[in-house]
Amino acid sequence: IGAEISSSSVLSGLSIIVLVWAAIVLAIAASLGYATLVLRRIVNRARPLDTEDWLTPLWEVSDRLSLEEPPRLLRSEDAKMPFACGVFNATIVLPAECDSWSLDRRRAVLLHELAHVRRHDLVGHTLGRLACAVYWFHPLVWTAAKQLRSESERACDDLALACGARATDYAEHLLDIVTSVRRDATPSVALAMARRKEFEGRMLAILDPELRHSSPTRKQSAILIGSLALISIFVGAAAPSPRTSVHVAASPISRSAELQLLSSQKTPEAKGYPDSREIIGGSKTHEKTETATTIATVTTQATQTVASSIGQVVEHAVEQGATIIPQALLQALSQRTGKAAKDTDERPVLLARILATDTSASLRRIAAWGLSEYADRQVASDALANALRRDSDASVREMAAWALSDADHSSTAVEALSAALRSDASTQVRATAAWALGNVGNRSSAEALAAALSDASVEVRKRAAWALGNSDLKQAPPALIALLSDKDPEMRELAAWSLFQIEDPAAIPALNAALARETNKELQIAYIRALAAVGEKSVDALKNLLESKDPEIRSIAVRALAGGHATGPWPRPWPEPRPFPH
Question: pLDDT, tens digit, for every residue of 314-362?
Fold first, then answer.
């Protein structure tokens, strides 16, 4: 009888613990459910931003981040802070104040919010909230979730800077947005652009070039997301089993995981070269675009805190024969239609016929836009090249030039784009042709691009200078070197960047002369980087900088002497347009 009473008492105690656990889980779930309802109401009451002044930067930034389709862009009177939401249908919501934003601020905000979409942060944070709801009693889970959010925000800031945003301008936009909001009412299930309590650390990270942020591997990120999902599945499916003893032994996996979590918090960050942010923006070739896809969901610090412990749970589950795979991982493992399927697709033939024969300029433009998916096929590249040379409508020619940017290693595309760059009457067509040639990255376009440096349009000249840096040249055209004396600071910086890419020793005297007369500090650093890329032949030009009174100039000069890449990667300018059918 005494044993039965003792057993009953133990079961009663366990029941109370389970009830308390379940009650708090339900309370947290109810809070998340209410936040979801509030978010849905904000989204339903918002109106789409579908004017050209918003769609143009939206498509442009989407291209920078290699998003096939941009998310929905909404304007809401209820929102006070820009935020991203929607796991399955990504949406960006902007406050009503966005109407008065400058183009630079619009791009900065879109860069940050679309970075969340590109990195799938919405999936990761949703799984993190579910893990917190299930493991509400474990402080390390809350710590990991908080660290996940902090590091993902900083990773998005780094991504925006790597896409060419200036640190000072980006920080100013962030400061203005945060200080304009006295009380942020963004629902907890959304990712607000900034929160006051984490703002100071982010500003320091943005403005301090010595801070190094590194991204985890895809494997680490997949383990993190999948593990959070599996934890929720396993805990939700678990049921009490008969026990022969009230003593419960600590799981070796959970004990090891906890020790690893505790030790990871005491491990100092690894130090590396400053200024080594990942280069995401730009598309020198498709290889450069693929670089963007390596940016993972969270940064290394958060991944090491969580994945080191949870990854063991996944391995243990696999050993036990677990077959449940989160939907997010299934989607990540899905593959696009293969090349063989594309080769048998009849759509490019039909679109090519419309582009060549239809009387409606609007339909021809849409056909050219659609052919961009098939630009590597001869039928598509021939049709686009023909339209670029002969179509009477400038908007159709512009779209054809844009579509040909996907025609890798196509002599037909390079010849048509070079001809358009030389002689097309439309400034926009010439500018798009210059960008497309840079995207193709073929050396045979160097002559046409160099000639375009004297184009009457400033925009065409800038894109031509940018494209030359993307064309894998061995020698810098004299016209490009001459741009170091241009009166436009942006043009001089583009020239320095292209020379940084080309690494031609013949540019050293011009770079040295430009450095001597330059008063703009940012441009001085640009010239030093270009000199450093040349290698040992630039030593004489760099050693004089060791006596500079400016510590930043002296520091980057030392790093330049240490090696051509010791100054870190140089965020690539991005003049890419993104035409879209109306």
Answer: 444 434 444 343 444 334 434 444 444 555 678 899 999 999 999 999 9
Rounded CA-CA distance 230/311 in Å is: 10
Q: Where are the domains of the chain?
A: 2-237+252-330, 338-459, 474-582
Six token digits for residue 460: 């065409």
For residue 185, pLDDT over 50 is answered with yes
What does the pLDDT look like over 25-80, one tens digit per residue?
Answer: 999 999 989 998 999 999 999 999 988 889 888 888 887 787 878 899 999 999 98
Burial class (CB in 10 A: 0-12, 13-18, 19+), 466: buried
Give domain 474-582's CATH superfamily: Leucine-rich Repeat Variant (1.25.10.10)
Q: How far is CA 47 from the centre of its chain?
A: 26
Number of H helices, E strands in the chain: 27, 5
Could you check whether 338-459 and 474-582 share the same CATH topology? yes
> Pick from 105, 115, 109, 127: which is nearest to 152 by CA?
115
Q: Is the pLDDT of residue 7 over 80?
A: no
For every residue of 118-183, which 3-state class applies, written as one string?
HCCHHHHHHHHHHHHHHCCCCHHHHHHHHHHHHHHHHHHHHHHHHCCCCHHHHHHHHHHHHHCCCC
328 with 225: CB under 8 angstroms?
A: yes
User: Side chain identity at 166, as an amino acid letter?
Assistant: R
Q: What is the DSSP letter of 210?
A: T
Q: What is the pLDDT of residue 502?
A: 92
Helix/strand/coil for 85: strand
* 175 dihedral zone (left: phi>0; alpha: psi -120 to 50; beta): alpha
Ordered strands of the 191-192 beta sheet? 47-48, 72-76, 91-95, 83-85, 191-192
Name the percent of the chain lying above pLDDT 70: 70
Give CA angle at 115 (156, 221), nearest 5°.
75
CA distance 218 to 335: 16
φ, ψ (nearest 5 deg) of residue 74: -125, 155
Is residue 371 within 8 Å of 383, Cβ to Cβ?
A: yes
Question: Which architecture, in CATH terms, is 338-459?
Answer: Alpha Horseshoe (1.25)
Q: pLDDT tens, 129-138?
A: 888 989 888 8
Q: Is the dihedral of CA 270, 271, 272, 278 positive or negative?
A: positive
pLDDT of residue 331: 43
* H or E element in which residue 418 lies: helix 411-423
Report pLDDT for 238. 46
